[in-house]
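Aim 2 progress update. The chain analyzed this quarter is reproduced below.
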Amino acid sequence: MDHDEVPLLDGLAEYRRLGRYGFTPPGHRQGRGTDPRVREVIGWDAFRSDVLAAAGLDDRSSSGGLLRRAEELMADAVGAEHAFFSTCGSSLSVKAAMMAVAGGSPGGLLLSRDAHKSVVAGLIFSGVQPRWIPPRWDARLHLAHPPSPEEVERAWQRNPDAAGALIISPTPYGTCADLVGIASVCHDRGKPLIVDEAWGAHLPFHSDLPTWAMDAGADVCVVSVHKMGAGFEQGSVFHVQGDLVDPAHLSACADLLMTTSPNVLLYSAMDGWRRQMVQHGAELLGAALELAGRLRGEIDALPNLHVLHDELLDAEASRDLDLLQVLIDVTGLGISGYQAADWLREHCRIDMGLSDSHRVQATLSMADDDLSAKKLVDALSRLAGAAPQLPTPPAVRLPAPHGLELESVALPRDAFFGPTEMVPVQEAVGRVAAEQVTPYPPGIPVIVPGERITAEVLDYLRTGLSAGMVLPDPTDHSLSTVRVVAEQPD
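Predicted structure tokens:
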């Protein structure tokens, strides 16, 4: 295929060249009706490009087929059989994949317990029964590594009627599962593998990056172009191959969740990014990896800071590591990752990609250069100098690994939509959760609806809040009260 071709971008440019005018939504009429104060911040061009249906870029209202052609080019670029664009992020894409594979299946779906909160939302929407695969909890580092093929095999032995498996790789920390081995385990049973590869849109375009899910044998792969690519927020693609997942059914499931008014800017940015990657991806990502290698060494040489690498790849950890995710242990400074992120934001105007009780993380991309790298090193050097003046961080009482494996006693859908009540946190122990509770970032739920709440997990979350953890999704953000399944009277 000719990857100079960018059908969506070309269609948008043609619409603007012709000076067309549509008596259709959006009602701002290419910005003419927009408050000038809004245009001053956002600019005219964003509104002049908000013309999806009128420009013939939406296949539902035009016979032009430009979106379909862009998706065909994307699939060809990465070696998938089919690709579908989503403008509602990988949160939508992964829900569609879950519904296509396991919707209506009594056997449920195998899921790694380090799944993103969007996966839990998919369970609530679909009514699918989760069959949890425990990740490899690292008690020393206090993080979860992806499950091994052996753990996935054991999960299949426990749940032979499950419809398929869903694995997260790379994790938000950049650690990667042995997808080749996991795909083989699934395919030996004739079952499909979904990979939530939201952090891996760049993987197909450079050989020194971890193995991309389609090359590893996954049947469905979901990527977020805005995370490690160069698209707008919410831009996502899901790829399909093989005969275990019907692409037409997958597309229909996505259509149930998708907006009927997608934004052409998101589509066009993905179209242009695909062309850029095919033509220049190896060069751009090679430069980014070289920069990351130098930067990792410079940060590790700063006093009392440590860049994690070997400890993420030992025998009981992950199969591979995306080196563009620079994970920095700050405990040598005597502070928490939450404090470090807050200090860098306030004093250096630096926003880190992730923070937890022990670490901060810088996510690099092909857009970074020596200037942005120097800015990060200088900021971390200033942090190292300022750390002795920062208060001693409140202790976060981290559970033992088994303490994070809560008992599932009800379907997430039933717990979420059934009768519920708010109870004081001290009365929530032993009750069944009716809401998810998710430290964010990275967005991995500690409590899922339908799980029995323990004192150990509540203690972890409450002490985490005091230390700077953010919990965006419980009804009571202070966690003084918790929404639980209502008890039935005797």
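The first strand starts at residue 82 and ends at 86. The first helix runs from residue 7 to 18. These observations will guide the mutagenesis experiments scheduled for the next reporting period.
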